[in-house]
Structures are given as structure tokens and as C-alpha cells.
Design a protein that fits this description.
The protein is an alpha/beta fold. It has one domain: 3-Layer(aba) Sandwich (UDP-N-acetylmuramoyl-L-alanine:D-glutamate ligase). It is 35% helix and 23% strand. The protein has 13 helices and 14 strands. A hairpin with a 2-residue loop joins strand 13 and strand 14. Helix 3 crosses helix 12, helix 7 packs parallel to helix 9 and helix 12 runs antiparallel to helix 13. The protein is globular and about 55 Å long. The N terminus is likely disordered.
Length: 364
């Protein structure tokens, strides 16, 4: 059998064995709910706002006009987004039934965009419990697409107003956290509410449940390093892509930073609180092999072939990979099956505009 079958499986949850497929709220996600506004732009547009063709940044004052400008483009598309929300939606889509396997917490405004996010979450059968406030409008993310590249600029607005005391700590909400057995939070949320992440991460660790985190973007490892490293000891599964892994390695002072397998190994061996589970590190590399630590080994998994002409929009591919992975994880499948599902979901998403999907998955 595969090399990890003989090892104890660190990612498996046994306390719900057998009934895994039927549990509502088994998967918990918390993050920045954003409405994606995507449009094809040219190099001049990127230069005008000082954007790199492929990047993920937070909006500054100089970008404010950009949101209005992109909204006026001829072929602008609006999609419910936000990294963690995308992932839990994809997980729910992969699982299909029961509905509301996935719970999502995040903050929105009391406005039209907020209503769209609510409606889209409902259509995706995700149990979205938004914290709604009136101070800030619902957050948006401008996806500036040039060819195969996408430059993402997030204007967090309301998403930045998530409040632990006014939402996470409330009994009715915290009960949903306790109900879950797998937790996923994108690193982006470290800029918003690290104290909320820590509370959830500690709960998972103390109850031997699975807590996963995504490196999300190079700027997180660079500028939110302290918050990230406070959470790292509770991380059972760490996700990221090759660029984020390289930045993380540099910031952590790992030598030989160009070898992704070595970076995965070192990230795996960072201090960890719950000793019952060995950390699993999973790094995707676009069309190249996905790298994952299994026990003491680092294994490569090849992605599904796709014709370059079939790629419509790579925006959301990373979120989709995580969503597919989580859908199998929550059903207590092997790591190999989790990765295969991740590759399948990403392959579906990149053939479509935005992080959208057909009615049903065609995944065995």
C-alpha cells in the first residue's frame, strides 16, 4: 500500500468515525467575505495603479479610484468571494449533501453587496453566520486580469471589522465552533482578528481536532509574521503555493530556500502543541507537482493535465484546491484522496470565470 497507510494518520479524526458523511457544521471556516469584481485590464491600467501582473495586496488610498474605474469596464463580473469563503463553498459543493456541512463566519455591511453575499452563500448551502455592522460597507476584491495573470487588490472595509467579542464569543456562534471537527482559516484573516484565530486554534488543539491555515500571500509572511507564528504551534495542516512558501522560508531564515521539499520539511518541524498529530504541509505549484509531507517523507503529486486554451481564469484555483481537499478530509479520507480532490476542484475552477462551479461535481 501507499507509504502513509502504515503510519498512524495524523489528519484523520476518529471521534466521529462512521458518521462523518452526515455531519452538519463539521467544517468551520472564518475569514474575509468579499465581493469579487473582476475585469480584463491592460498593462497601462496595472502601471497606473502600481500593480504587479500577479499579486495579492491590500488596497491603499491610491487604489480607491481603481475600484470605480474597474466597475465601469464593459465586461465586469461580480462573484461572491473571499479566500476562506471560496474554499468552504467548494468543499460543500464537492460533498453535495447534507447541506450546511460547512459553517462560515465573517463580517459584512448592511448594503446591496452584503445581500448578494448572503444570497450566494445560501445558494451554495453554506451555513454563513455573518456579523453585520453599519460602520463600513461590504468588502470588495478587484481582480485585474491580464492574460493568464491576475492582480488582486482587496478593499477589506467591513471584513476588517470582524469582532471576537461581538460575534465569535456569543454562545450561539461558539456552539457552531464546538460542533466542527475540521477548521480552516486563510492567513488573510491574520490581518483582521488574530485573537479570533487563536481562540479557534486552541479549541481544535485541546480537543484533538484538525486546524488548518493557509499562508495566503507573501505579504502575510512578511508583515504579519508575529501573528502567524503565534498560531503556527496549533496548525495541523499548512497550505500554501510555491511563491508563498519561498517568502515564508526567507522570513523564517530557512537556508536553501529554493528547494520546496526542504521548505515543507522545515515548516513541518516547527514547534507544535498537539503531539497526537504530526503536522502535514501541502504546497501547490500551479501546473507543477503538489508537494506534501507524509510522515517523514515528502511526496510529489502530479496535477491533472489541462490544455492551456481551456484555462479561463486561474483566480480561485488555490482556494478551490483547499476546498476539494477539505471535502475529503471532513469525510476522513486518506491524504492522497484529499489531494486528488483538491486537484480535481482546482481543475474545474480554472476553466470558469471567478470561483464558480457547475451544478454537480464529476468526482468519483
Amino acid at each position: 500500500g501507499p507509504p502513509w497507510e502504515s503510519n498512524p494518520q495524523p489528519w484523520r479524526c476518529t471521534h466521529h468515525a462512521g458518521v462523518a458523511n452526515t455531519i452538519e457544521n463539521a467544517l468551520f471556516g472564518m475569514g474575509n467575505p468579499l465581493l469579487d469584481i473582476s475585469a480584463v485590464v491592460d498593462k497601462d491600467f496595472l502601471d497606473k495603479y502600481g500593480l504587479k501582473p500577479n499579486d495579492q495586496i491590500l488596497a491603499e488610498d491610491k487604489h480607491k479610484a481603481m475600484f470605480d474605474e474597474i466597475a465601469k469596464k464593459s465586461k465586469v463580473e461580480y462573484h461572491a468571494g473571499g479566500s476562506t469563503q471560496n474554499s468552504v463553498k467548494i468543499a460543500q459543493w464537492m460533498i453535495q449533501t447534507p447541506h450546511k456541512v460547512a459553517t462560515f463566519f465573517g463580517c459584512i455591511g448592511t448594503d446591496h453587496f452584503g445581500e448578494i453575499l448572503k444570497q450566494k452563500a445560501e445558494e451554495a448551502h453554506v451555513d454563513a453566520r455573518y456579523y453585520q455592522q453599519t460602520q463600513e460597507p461590504t468588502g470588495t476584491c478587484a481582480a485585474c486580469i491580464t492574460g493568464d495573470n491576475r492582480s488582486l487588490v482587496a478593499n477589506l472595509a467591513a471584513a476588517n471589522c470582524y469582532n471576537k467579542e461581538k460575534h465569535l464569543d456569543l454562545d450561539g456562534n461558539w456552539e457552531l465552533v464546538e460542533k466542527a471537527k475540521v477548521y480552516y482559516i486563510a492567513g488573510f484573516f491574520l490581518t483582521v482578528s488574530p485573537e479570533s484565530i487563536l481562540k479557534v486554534a486552541k479549541h481544535a488543539s485541546e480537543n484533538n481536532k484538525i486546524f488548518s491555515l493557509n499562508l495566503s500571500a507573501p505579504f502575510i509572511s512578511q508583515f504579519f509574521k508575529e501573528a502567524m507564528m503565534k498560531v503556527m504551534p496549533y496548525v495541523d495542516i499548512l497550505f500554501g503555493n510555491e511563491t508563498e512558501a519561498a517568502t515564508f522560508a526567507k522570513e523564517q531564515g530557512f537556508e536553501e530556500t529554493d528547494d520546496i521539499a526542504e521548505i515543507a520539511r522545515r515548516a513541518q518541524s516547527l514547534p507544535k502543541v498537539n503531539k497526537k498529530r504530526q503536522r502535514v504541509v501541502v504546497f501547490t505549484q500551479g501546473k507543477d507537482d503538489t508537494v506534501a509531507t507524509i510522515g517523514e517523507k515528502v511526496t510529489m503529486f502530479s496535477v491533472l493535465d489541462i490544455d492551456q486554451n481551456d484555462i479561463v481564469d486561474t483566480n480561485g484555483a488555490g482556494d478551490a484546491f483547499v476546498g476539494g481537499f477539505l471535502s475529503e478530509l471532513v469525510q476522513e479520507r486518506t491524504l492522497e484522496e484529499c489531494i486528488r480532490a483538491g486537484h480535481y476542484a482546482a481543475n474545474v475552477i480554472i476553466r470558469r470565470a471567478g470561483c464558480t462551479f457547475p451544478e454537480k461535481p464529476d468526482f468519483p
